[in-house]
Amino acid sequence: MKPSEKEEQFFREQELKRRLEQARKEQEAMAAAERARLKELHYMHCPKCGQKLMPQKYGEIEIDVCGSCHGLWLDAQELDQILASQTRRGPFRKFLEVLGG
């Protein structure tokens, strides 16, 4: 018995869906691998000169300092934590006053 045209079309559509899903999964896996590769390449490197950043303690806060250009890099909310720990007229407060903050 020969399959009907509708049966053939159904199985072609199912195969196409399976292949598209497989291609999507492969593309997602490649994108995840590329994100991981870029993170490994750039994580904890100075945005200015590209050298390795070294964590240093400033009170209770750990900041990242470049050993080459001596750039200072803060993670989210670290400046707020530093300012909160300073006295009313501390050095960082004076700096912000100069900037208009």
Portion in beta strands: 5-15%
Rounded radius of gyration (Å): 27 Å
Specify the overall morphology. Answer: elongated
pLDDT averaged residue by residue: 85
Q: Uncertain segments of ≥5 residues (pLDDT<50)?
A: none
What's the SSE pattern? HEEEHH
The biggest sheet amounts to: 3 strands, antiparallel
Helix count from the secondary structure assignment = 3
Q: Helix- and strand-based class?
A: alpha+beta
- Strand arrangement within the widest β-sheet reads 1-2-3
Please bin the fraction of helical residues. 40-55%
Quaternary class: single chain
Overall number of strands: 3
N- and C-termini, Cα separation: 83 Å
What does this entry look like structurally?
There is one protein chain. The protein is built from 3 helices and 3 strands; from the N terminus they run αβββαα. The termini are far apart. By secondary structure, the protein is of the alpha+beta class. Helix content is 54%, strand content 14%. β2 and β3 form a beta hairpin. It has helices at 5-42, 78-85, 91-99; strands at 53-58, 61-66, 72-73. A 3-stranded antiparallel sheet has the order 1-2-3.
